[in-house]
């Protein structure tokens, strides 16, 4: 039969951090052959070597073969396949079913007690053994020496105790068959546990301690203090060997009483097969026990403390609900001088006890366990519903430790673990193991009764054990609805199997296995197309963790048709359950809402705890990391609600993070803004599976991108400073062997630390850093080696901290690129790019000093020329400084500037050409640039494609678009020919008088074969030759640079690459010339292919520069199908201009007429004043 995968899992108790956890072994078991399990229950269970043996109340044994689960099966439950179903032989049915399954692996035999009938079978298939041996009627079988469990030798067989009606037979079971060894006169035995020659046994009324070797017994305690037939139990040892010879019944009162389970009442027939069980007479029926010589101590030489006549009974004082655990119980006999008298009872208590209380006697089943090789645990009580007491006795029959208490009298008990004895020393190979008692009990809780397993320590102080009791509630599992609809409780059983079984706790694997935490967004992964398989290291980590997840357990529970393992809960499971409890609130719907108090308590409990093995070592690391991560999540969530957190809580969280040493990338992934700094390798971030699950759940429930991230609010106060200190802690760990993924971890640490300092420094006043300030920390960070160079550059660019960027370049750039990067950054600052820090004071002077300190001649050439262009006075100092490390002769300076620094050459050559009137350099410089450009275009076809592509790209830009000059400057490549071309354009377009002397026809002849590729050059040269119509056509259709075309018209064909700024009036063309150029431009705008562009550009031109156009000429050119709205602004302005011109003309005429009259009057007055002049004409 295969266990059902759909069967509901047993709900774990809450909280789940108890000493034991349950794992399902099998469910939906077919207890009945016909499938009807309503009235059939499991009575006993055994597991051995992947074989499951189940005894039922229907007097059947069902054998299952357990198939181990697959490694990837999360349930970890084996598959149970039914191998056989058999009905053991019995003489008479007493409705007890299968009472015991005793496996003897050493001899591959099984003893099965069914309806008080014992039969033998062979393992593992349960075939009948010893055909010549008839079934034996008895009440119990067992008593295998627990001290001999570690002895693997089974050559001599295994000695068991078979309890008959009036005696116990010691029988050796071997491969050949059972053989009687001796007889002990103790009848009606229901349970027995043996250690070497000492056995603690019980009948239906009391417990006794037997010396099976020397045939002695000591009465201990009655099982129930209400038992009227228990009599006085206890006292001096009794020699039961003498009773054996006289065949007298056992002194135990059980031989004279009615057995509560009626084993002897039904068909008790002694077997005489093989002659091993005598008929009660004759010496041949048993082996005589040897008697030691007189005077030698053997068996029970009773000390004075054991001279008692009555066994103690548990207190039943009505004044208290639960009797206290005590270190010893009072005895009725006179105490020995070695033991002090107990204190006199309180008068009030005596009066209460004197009140008669009538309680009906209900027989209690005895339970015996042996926690240590020298102790037995016995259960006593009054009634099944009242509390029971567990008493510990040693091999002398003395009380050996304090009693323990059960919520009710147990239905079954199991002891587990060797216990921790603080007084005893431990060997090097020994590990501390707590001792527990598991009892199947029930308890009353308010108005309902709960059923389950009570778990408590037996190896600690009574008060401590009482305080640490645990309860495993199984009420929901035990409830069963009968056919008539009524609720009933199915029996709950628990026992220790013959040999421990190994099983895998998948939770340990899930929590401790190193898994890949992938924080890269899906869209990024899909774009990159970088998919990684499962790394081999991950497979090795999984195998290692699975080995740690294998545990040994020997305890099984059963109820109804289900069976579970009771597994000692590993440390990591217990502690993680506490963290799970602290992770969310009962009303939170499973969302992460950490409870800080519980988390801090958990961390406090494990502080200083030393691991006992490798699993605990890894488990404690995991718990510290998860607890610290939850504390940090609690800070993040509270910060997201704008709560300012107390300093002590932040300090506790920071200390927890440092102790846990959580990967800083995990912490950063939870923080707004900083999550983008996380860098991971192809295998992701390797963390424990439990941490991975926690982080993934948090990121599913919360998106840090949408959390408040104001530096001046809770985000900055609660998180940034804490994370900064944690990152500094990790930065100090750089180079340690314990840190994995160093490259990715510290790249993230440096980037995040830089980002935090930039955020915190935003509100600092501009200017140089002061000691101890955030800005000083920022400078210190970039002044030292940093791992995330590219990201640091990006961040500093983003925050516009160019001066800090230059410091980064100075420390972290390669030596060959250091000066270039620093100078380029300073150049950007001086050219007007914002530097938010404002630290680059007197920048031009600093740059000039820097050039004098470096030995890189090329840098000095380039930036000296640039500085000369910007500030001629300082620029001249660069080339004329005799103290500079790079010195220049004037002729050499001219040659270098002409070759490598066109931007600076413009100013420097102007100084030579115009200042010194030396125009010979103009054509030479232009010819040099032309050689480079033309040679490249001839030899490299890709250069032509590049130029053509730039035109297409520029034309495809949506307005507002930069000028073509700005476009090619911003998108310049590092190719020499490209830079030379830019310099050529600059020189060709120069408007200085000295530069106008270059040979335009000669240059044009060289460029004409490349007029499709060198459009700007052709525009400039056409303008120089006065071919403005062609230049405007190229600007409009060749480049699509409409703004430059307009400037061309305004400036009268001056360079399209002239610097922006003031244009002298004398350089401006006449208005008629401008109007003519605008007419060409209007004609070209009307030829634009794209209709929307045509309309927009024409409308803009007419509206902005309508004063240069004749209305009639414009109306004649405008298509008739255009809406008047297109040029309505032009018409309105034109009409206004016409009216204004008419009015101005009228005023001018009037003024001219007045002026004419005035002059006429002046002439008349002057004539009159002078008078006439008479001239005679011959």
UniProtKB/TrEMBL annotation:
Pro residues bias (residue ranges): 337-346
Spans annotated as Disordered: 232-350
Biased composition (Low complexity): 245-260
Keyword Cytoplasm: yes
Protein name: CNH domain-containing protein
Protein source organism: Delitschia confertaspora ATCC 74209
Keywords: Cytoplasm, Protein transport, Transport
Compartments, as annotated in UniProt: Cytoplasm
GO CC, any one term: cytoplasm
Record flagged with keyword Transport: yes
Domain of life: Eukaryota
GO biological process, one term: protein transport
InterPro entries in the cross-refs: CNH_dom (IPR001180), Vam6/VPS39/TRAP1 (IPR032914)
Location, primary (coarse class): cytoplasm
Every CNH domain range: 39-459
